[in-house]
């Protein structure tokens, strides 16, 4: 009696589910890690064209009996990041992956992996928590007894 698990003739030939692959050159591995980088000038132009298209569409749909819609300032490069995906072989260090990298970051194609070779943006300092003094009648004297 044959106890081998029957194999589907299609098994192994199914296409990979759509999704990102490693951004290493010619690497088709599934990504294990991800980090962020700023957009290049060309990528930013594409994003700004999309945003301008959204604004134009909103303007075209406006109620002409009311004042025109007020749009905020156009976004800048600091408003966008792109995701960078990498397999284990092409991953940068975990500490570096926590930061936002330069648009020109070599990332998974860096010749010095796990160092990427760029200077990632420093994490912003947390905003200081405002402190207030309690009124004197809410404090207790310490060490007076
Ligand atoms: Zn890879
Ligand atoms: Zn980098």
Describe, in plain words, how this protein is organized in 3D.
- It is a single chain.
- The longest helix is centred in the middle third of the chain and has 20 residues, at about 40-60.
- This protein is flat.
- The chain has helices at about 40-60, 95, and strands spanning about 35, 80-85, 100.
- It starts with about 30 loop residues before the first strand and ends in a 44-residue tail after the last strand.
- Strands 2-1-3 form a 3-stranded mixed β-sheet, with no helix packed on it.
- The protein is an alpha+beta fold and about 140 residues long.
- It contains 2 helices and 3 strands.
- Helices cover about 15% and strands about 10% of the residues.
- It has a domain at about 20-110.
- Bound molecules: zinc ion (2 copies).
- One zinc ion binds near residues 22, 27, 29, 87 and 90.
- One zinc ion (ZN) binds next to loops.
Which features would summarize this protein structure in a list?
flat; disordered N terminus; 145 residues; 3-stranded mixed beta sheet; 2 helices; alpha+beta; binds zinc ion
Please identify the structural class as seen in this structure: alpha+beta
Euclidean distance between termini CA atoms: 91 Å
Shape label: flat
Give the distinct bound molecules: zinc ion
Major sheet description: 3 strands, mixed
Count of beta strands = 3
Mean pLDDT: 87
* SSE series: EHEHE
Question: Strand share of the residues?
Answer: 5-15%
Residues in helices, as a percent range: 10-25%
Strand order of the largest sheet: 2-1-3
- Poorly predicted regions are 1-6
DSSP helix count? 2
Rounded radius of gyration (Å): 27 Å
